[in-house]
Every structure is written in structure tokens, then in C-alpha cells.
């Protein structure tokens, strides 16, 4: 039994945890979202002055799989090899929340009406929070694409935004997922090989080292922040349960619980989500470096091949063509990659700043609120009022 | 006027006018009790006239009796106007024995039960003034108000009392006599080695009470000594309905760790937990006015060496509970359902049972909170280290610094969580555990009373049987056995009287004990809640400090 109503609508703009310049020529946002039993429907809303679109303002409904399709089309496009492809949004995952709600429904008989209502409210709030987060992440992806000078012009992107029918992309089936898995294995093996090649360019060599270490550390911090916040939420849940066993309920514990839960939720948003996002972004940056590295290796191999061909005086033209192609590819990537990586750094620093400041401010706000609450309660209890 | 009123105490009207109104009322109240029926109508009308002269009210007696209920519902300090009324009566009219000797304590319902029957004892039917029956109604109103108040006390089991109640309770505490005996238990030390090792605790007493040899003294005691004390007190006093505070529970696992010499935080925590529990236990024992008088208690506090209590094997916390349950089982197996004359006991037993359930549930939840907080503390520490690593690999200098600052903040927060978990535990969880045990002991008191009742009923039955036997002998005309039967009847009549008296005595004791327990509980919870909130407050203040320091670092990121 679904204790929660199946349809959740969300119509207000959400805070984006990535700092992006919005450009009047193309503005994308998710204006609404509908959570159904096993899928989420996002309403993608576009405002644009670009001539490519039939109208200046329009909306379409998209599902998660269509976002993935768009992302993958970027990754597979050779033209975009020199750019950091904005990481795809994670799949909406309400399983845990749904399970909890179900358990609550089953255990309804064993608790008082008050306890039940309270816990239901709490779980519904959790569901809503997850929902909001998944919407935000899908939105961030689209905004990043829209903000990118090259990607925003992508045809698939325009189709994604404008085509008001179902794009008929299905999620990958088992066979395809297995293929992907092997591809990834090969890629990471290759990646190691490529990374081993010392880069002539100091900038890229430095970036390579930096990103490798950074990525690993962000991964670690992300996992640990998740665990920490989970404990925090459990403790807040306990306080909630304790508070709900008593009536008349003094304001203290119910409000204190709300504050505790809010602290955990804000930490989640400002810290955990930030780290998660940059985990994915740093991976995308690594991917770029890998592609460049790959191109470099190919270029160097082509050079060697050309030398050999010239020495043997056999298939020289072919070798020259190959070498030209490799050279162009490599240089094209290098050119854009440098800027991309600089932008990545700028974005990263700005996002961390924004979120850390907001985190500190929120923590202060909650602590001060809690303090006031406690002071007034103690005052009354001690008879000072 | 004075002649009509027929009172030796009755001063001439002129004098009376000078007396405080209360006194006048008191005298008139007495008239109601004492006046012979024939003069009642006259005296009452005269009284009424007099009263109207003095106070301009028609029905002053009524006003007088209206006072007590009002006072009680406000839950005031013990020394309220009604008390004065009675004492005034007492001091002025020493010859009047019908006035209850000590009705001063309005909060002891027994006191009220005495006056209540009195008016009815006097031929109320002949009383023409309605005031008389009103008194009785008003007294029962007083009782029911008091009853509600007491139930309110018993329902405020959690730390979530209604605030006004707390307020009043504290006032009451201040007005009581200061109890000058401080006990502290400190310096747990391991004595001996291996499996025969034990922890010795220093028990320090500080007092000005004259029954002790000196003002400050210290002894060393081990856990089994405390159990031994409980056993001795229990043996002597529990059958009289006294509430003997139960000792902390034995813990084989905990003690084994200590014995084996495992020096880890969990065994340190165990020792601290036990030390605190023993301290609370002793403090409860000595704050019981009757138990304090017991020589065993004094000996426990003062004597250098105590004989080793060997029979405490049976009397661990679990053993104690088992004992209680046995008594409860015996009670439930009683075939004759006790005809509960006194509704108070019925309701109280129910309250105690409900409360115990409630506390158990709460205790489970608090333990969950403690565990989650400990978990949170651990995870925060791990996270802090991770952030520090992240900061060191970040190549933007300002961001790098901010991240390492963040790591430090999280580290300090971890410490806070740790302290908070400990606070949750010691202030909150242990308090609940104590009261779950105590409520069990309260139930034990009620069971003792049941046993006494059973004994009395059994004696009544036996007496009945003896009487029947005598009747049979008379009918069968066997004079030789008759004398023996008569002797037995006399014997059992005496027993019935004795057991009935004992039952009434134990009922009174249990009632008193439970009322005292409720008060102590309210005080205890109040105190602990305040302590808990104060530590929460401190945490929040620290949090503010840490984040305040961090914020400029975050803002400095470029």
C-alpha cells in the first residue's frame, strides 16, 4: 500500500548547487515533475531567443532514460572529445523510501495513532526531499549543457528540448548493460596505460596527477559524508520517536527534533550533494584527460608509423594521412581541453565556496534557534520567568 | 451571644470582633460539630446572624469549607490557610477530642478521611442547617481534587511534565526541611587479580546529623556490600509496606571484562556507570526517613570493615526481579478477589503498571538514540579525516585552507556528539532504568499489602470455621470439647483483630510511601531534565562558536 499519494508535483525552481551563468539566449529549467509509481516525469521548460527553435518558449515531458540517452550521445560524439561532458544525473531512487513507507503501513497496528501520524509525516518529508533532489540533479545537467558554448548547439539537445513526443529511447537491456560493463573495464585498463605516458605539456601533466588524486579523495569524502549524515538522520528519527510518545507534547522536544532533522537535511544538501556532484564532474574531467591522452598516444603512434613508412618507403601517403588526422584530433582536443579544465576549476571553487558558506550559515541558524528554544525552556523550568 | 453559643472558648462578642476572621470561623466550625441537636437550629441561626454581622455574608461556614478545595487545586505550598484553621482549632479548644489531632497535612489523604466521617458521625440528619452536609460534599471534593493532583503527579512520568507543575514542585522542595546528608561514591579501584578481583568504591559521607559518630567519614565498599545492604533492609522492612530502593543490577559480562583487566573504553564506561548507579542507590536509601534510622544503614556508611555478604548471589538485579515476580504471581493466584475498599489503591496500581510500560518503551528508544549518536560521532571523525585529505589535494589555496578548517570543525563536532551521547545515556537512559526498577519495587509494596489482606481474610475464614465448629459442638452437646473450641475462637478473634490492624497499618504505610515516591520521582525527573537541557544548551553554544569561526574562512575562498 502506498501511504504516500502517487503524484508529487513540484512547481517552484530549486536551488542549484552548481554555479552557472545563465544566458538569456537559452534558459532551461525543470518547471514541474510528477512522481509515479516507478518513474518520474520531468517537465522541461525552455526559453530561448535562438532561431533554431520554432517558438520562444515551450515545454516537453521527459523521463530519466531520455536524459541518459542525451548524455551518452555527447560521450559518443567524437566532435565533443575535447570537452568535459556534464555528468549524467543519477537514476531517481525511491526504493528505500518506499520500503520504509511500506514497513510503516504494516506496523500501523503496533503503534498509537499519534506515533503513526508522526512517522508517516517524517517519511513523507524524506520522500519529498529525495524527490526534490532528483529534480535538482536533472536540472543541473540540462543547465550545464545549455551553458556550454558548444554543447548547447547540439542537435540532439534541441530535439530533447523541443520534440514533444516520446523520444522512444529505452533503458539499456541486460545485454547492453553487460557490453557497457566490459567497455568500461577495457577503458579503465587503457586509461591506466594512457595515464602512464608522460605528457609533454606541463599543464596537462599536472592536471592529470591532480585529478587522479582529487577524484579519489572526493570519492572517499562523498562516501563518508553519506554515512555521517545517515547516522545523523537516524538520531533525529529517534528523537522524533521519543517526542511522539508523549502528550501533551512540550514544544521543546518536537521543535528540537525538527531542528535536528533540518540540520541533517541541510548537511545532506550542502555537503553530501556537493561532494557527490564533484565526484561525477571530476570523473568527467578525468575522462576528458583520458581522451586527450588516448589521442596523444594515437598521434605518437601515428608519428612512429609514418617514420617507419618513410624508412621503408611503403604506404607513406596513407601513413601521412593517418598522422594528419591524429594530429588534428589531438590538437583540437588539447585546445579546448585546457579551457575546459580551467573552467572546471573555477566552477568547482565557486560551488564549494557557495555551499560551504551556505552550510555554515544554516548550521549557525539552526544552532541559534535551538539555543533560544533551550534557553526559554530552561527559564520556565527553573522558574525564572 | 456567648451564652447561646455555649462554647467555653467563645469569647465575648467584642473580643471576637478583635480576633482574626479565621479564628472566628474555626470556633464556629466547631460549633457545627459539637452543638447538641436541640440548640442547633437556634445556634446556627444565631451564628448566621453573627457571621453576617461580622462579615456581611450569609453563609460563612460555607465559605470556610470552600477554601480547602481551592487551595488544593492550585497545588500550593503545604502551609496554606486551611491548615491554620485546624491548628487554631486545636490550640484553642483542647477539650474537644473530636477534632482530629493532626489534620495539618492536607496532602495526606488519611488526614482528610478523619474529619469527613466526623460530621456524619454526629447526627447529621438532625442538623437543620445545610452547611453540615455541604461540609461532607466539600471534603469529598477536596479529596477528589487531591486525588487528581496525585494522579497528575504520577502521570508526569516522563521528562515532559507540564511546566506549571514543575514550577510548583520546586517551590515545595524549597520549603521542606533541608536534609543534611551528602553521599558520594568515588575512586573505583580494582582490588586483587584474576577472577577473584573486585572493584572497591570509596563511599564518603558528609553530615551534620547527630546519629553519626563524626561529620565526615569514608569507607571502602564493594558491590556485594551494597547488595547485602539491600537484602538486610528488604528482609526487615518490605513486609511492612516500605519501599526499599532496589540496587543496580549485577552484570557478569561487565565485571568479567574488568576482572580480566581489559583496559578499553567499554569497561571504563561500565565502571563509571556502576559507580553512578551505586551513588544514586545510596542517596535514595538515605533520603528515606525511616530507612535512614535503620542501624544497618548507619553501619554501612560508618563501619570500617563489613562482613562479606555471601548470600547476595541470589539477590542480583535479576534475582530481585524474580522475587518480585514471585510475589506478584502469588497475588494473582489468590482466588478471592480483594474487595478494594479504597479506590485509591486500585487506581494507583493501574497507574504504576501503565507508567512502567511507558518507561520501558521510552528506555528502548533512548538506548537507540544513544547508539546512533555514538555511531554519528564515529562517522563524523572519519569524515573529518577524509575532508582533511581532500583539502590537502585541492590546488586552490583558499579552498584548501577552508577544507582543512572544515575538517577541524567536524572533528570538534565529533567530540560534541560523543559528549552528547554520554549525556543522553547517563542523564536520561539510566534515569529511566532506575525508575523502571523502582516502579517494580512499588508494585512489590502493593503486593505486600495484598499479602497482609490475604492473611487477614484467611484469619476471618478460620474464625468463621471455629465458630461453626463451636455451634456444631453445642448442638451435638459435647461439653468437654466446647471449652477448647471457645479458646480457639478467642485465639482467632485476636488474630483477626491483629491482622486487620496490620493490614490497615501497612495500607497507610504503602500509601505514604507511594506519595513520597511520586514526589521524589517528580523532583528527580525535573532535576535531570534541567541537567540534560543545560548540556544540550552548552552543545549548541559550542556549535555556534565553531561555525562562526569557520564562516569567514569559507567566505574567503576565491
From TrEMBL, chain A:
GO cellular component terms attached to this protein's record: cytosol; endosome
MF (Gene Ontology): phosphatidylinositol binding
Xref: InterPro entries: AH/BAR_dom_sf (IPR027267), PX_dom (IPR001683), PX_dom_sf (IPR036871), SNX5/SNX6/SNX32 (IPR014637)
GO BP terms, alphabetized: protein transport; retrograde transport, endosome to Golgi
A family per Pfam: PX
Domain PX: residue ranges: 20-167
This protein's UniProt keywords: Protein transport, Transport
Protein name: PX domain-containing protein
Classification of source organism: Eukaryota, Metazoa, Chordata, Craniata, Vertebrata
TrEMBL record, chain B:
Database matches in SUPFAM superfamilies: BAR/IMD domain-like, PX domain
Keyword Secreted: no
Any Pfam family the entry gives: Vps5
Molecular function GO labels: phosphatidylinositol binding
Topological type in the membrane: Peripheral membrane protein
Keyword field contains Magnesium: no
Residue ranges of domain PX in the record: 179-308
GO cellular component, one term: Golgi apparatus
Principal location class: other
Compartment(s) where it occurs, according to its Swiss-Prot or TrEMBL record: Cell projection, Lamellipodium; Early endosome membrane; Golgi apparatus, trans-Golgi network membrane
Bias (Acidic residues): 55-64
GO annotation, biological process: early endosome to Golgi transport; protein transport
Chain coiled-coil ranges: 482-509
Region (Disordered): 1-89, 112-132
Low complexity compositional bias, start-end: 38-52
PROSITE patterns reported in the protein's UniProt record: PX
Alphabetic keyword roster: Acetylation, Cell projection, Coiled coil, Endosome, Golgi apparatus, Membrane, Phosphoprotein, Protein transport, Transport
Membrane-traversing stretches: none
InterPro entries, per the entry: AH/BAR_dom_sf, PX_dom, PX_dom_sf, Vps5_C
Family named by the database record: Belongs to the sorting nexin family.
Family matches, as PANTHER family: SORTING NEXIN (PTHR10555), SORTING NEXIN-1 (PTHR10555:SF129)
Name under which the protein is recorded: Sorting nexin-1
Native species: Sinocyclocheilus rhinocerous
